[in-house]
Amino acid sequence: MSKIMQNHTLEQKLDSEVAVLISNTVFYSKGQAKKIRFAELFDNKFLLISLINNGIPYSFFSLIQTYTPLEEKDWTSILDLTSKSLQRYKAGSKQFGPLQSEKIIEMAEVTNIGLEVFRDMEKFSLWLDTPSFALGKMKPKDLLKDSYGKELVLGELVRINYGIFA
C-alpha cells in the first residue's frame, strides 16, 4: 500500500474514532458528530476538554500513536508511564485518565500543526529531532513532556509557518 493510501486510511480511521468519541459527549448528536473530522477537533476547546475529562480510550491512542512521529520511548516519557503499563492499557482496552488523555491530545495537536507547517512527516520528524537555536539549543521533541515546552514548540512552529526565524 502506498504511503498516500496509508495516510488516507489512517485519517479515515481517526475521523471515525472522533465521531464515536464525540457522540459520547453532551455537545453533539450522532449525526453532528460524523461531520467533525480529526483535523477539526482542535478548533473546539470545549469539546477537547470533554474528551480529556472522559478519558481517551486505548483504541484512539493507538491511532494517534501511529499518526505522530513519536516512538514508544517518547510516549512513555510524555505520559509518564512504563512500557509495561502501556501494554496493560492495550490488553485491557482501558481508557487513559485525564492527565494522560491531555498529553495524548496535545501530541496529536503538535503533530497536526507540524504537518501543516512541513507538509511531510519525515521533515517534521527531522525537525523534532534537531536542536533548535530558537528553543535554547534543545530538540523540540525533548520539550514536549510538559505543557510549557509544548507551548514553546507550538510557538516556534507558528513562527516557521509565517517565515519568522530567530
Topology, number of strands: 0
Q: If you compute it from the alpha carbons, what radius of gyration comes out, rounded to the nearest whole angstrom?
A: 16 Å
Question: Could you give the distance between the termini?
Answer: 40 Å
Shape: globular
Report mean pLDDT, rounded to a whole number.
89
Stretches where pLDDT is under 50 for at least 5 consecutive residues are none
**Main beta sheet strand tally, sense and closure:** none
Please indicate the percent range of residues in DSSP E strands (runs of 2 or more).
Answer: under 5%
Number of helices: 9
Q: How helical, in percent, are the residues?
A: 55-70%
Structural class: mainly alpha
The helix/strand series, from N terminus to C terminus, equals: HHHHHHHHH
Summarize, please.
With 166 residues, this protein is an all-alpha fold.
